[in-house]
Specification:
two-stranded antiparallel sheet, 3 helices
Length: 101
């Protein structure tokens, strides 16, 4: 391989990795959800945490570090739907990006 082709390949890898990072941030931002007086991130950790409780009401720390008492089932349901919707969109766009590679 000559230097020119190595540079071209390196630029393509860099652009691909930058596009993947952009997608990650884009969909991470979409996981934010304002609900029940707090701002929540629909992510694996929050969903798993809510699943670990059995009580109807639970106090959580929101993304602004404020304690908020929430209806666990309602919040869990909304976070779950949001997470699944966003991850489906993310996967679709990621597959399109990988196909261009």
């Amino acid at each position: 391989m000559d230097v020119k082709s190595l540079l071209t390949e390196a630029k393509a890898r860099f652009q691909h990795n930058a596009a993947k990072e952009y997608l990650k941030e884009k969909y991470r931002d979409k996981t934010l959800l304002a609900e029940q007086g707090g701002l929540w991130r629909a992510d694996k950790e929050t969903i798993a945490f809510l699943n670990s409780f059995t009580t109807e009401r639970v106090v959580l720390i929101d993304t602004y570090n404020n304690p908020v008492e929430v209806n666990r089932e309602e919040l869990l349901q909304k976070l779950h739907v949001t997470y699944q919707t966003i991850m489906d969109e993310y996967l679709k766009e990621w597959k399109e990006l990988e196909a261009k590679r």
